[in-house]
Amino acid sequence: LRPDERDETLRAATREVRALIRLVHLYIVRLYGVVVAEQGSVGMLLELAPRGRLRDLLDSSPAEVVGREAVQMELAADVVAAMAFLHAQTPPVLHHDLKSGNVLVFAGAVAGALQAKLTDFGLSLTASGSTLASTVRASGGTAAYQAPEQFDDTFTAASEVYAFSVIAWELLHGG
């Protein structure tokens, strides 16, 4: 890595580690440790998600989710609970890259059930001010999940609700 790439990698990893240390919640992936190599690479030891990412599950085995209302509702409820937890922090935390690729899937407590947990807090930001209407000027995220205002670099908690609606559509249709 070039020195500027190394510095940016370390900054993003530091941001993600700091977020995961303080954001302990049932529906947010757990951080167990961090490894930093002299060459500038950073590795995070995270909770193992045996089912992988929601996006990959929808691509490889859509029948496990699509058309199964109880599974769809549980996965959606888990993501919503994690978002509510993030937005309830003081100041609110905005994930900034909410998408099905950043939702990990675990086996649920009941046979056939699935559980979702948010991951990838490398772009997460703390909203300034005391309300969820606070805006953050920052680029980032994945275009297919971005609310219209994000294309003008304005990001709010409502932008994350928009991203969740795309995830909900994917849960319903697999797309």
Describe, in short, the structure shown.
With 175 residues, this protein is α+β, with helices and mostly antiparallel strands. The protein has 4 helices and 8 strands, in the order H-E-E-H-H-E-E-E-E-E-E-H. Helices cover 36% and strands 17% of the residues.
Description:
By secondary structure, this protein is α+β, with helices and mostly antiparallel strands. It contains 4 helices and 8 strands, in the order αββααββββββα. It has helices at residues 3-22, 54-60, 69-87, 157-173; strands spanning 31-36, 42-46, 93-94, 103-107, 114-118, 125-126, 136-137, 154-155. The strands form 4 sheets. A two-stranded antiparallel sheet has the order 1-2. It has a two-stranded antiparallel sheet with strand order 3-6. It has a two-stranded antiparallel sheet with strand order 4-5. Helix 3 packs antiparallel against helix 4 (157-173). The termini are far apart.
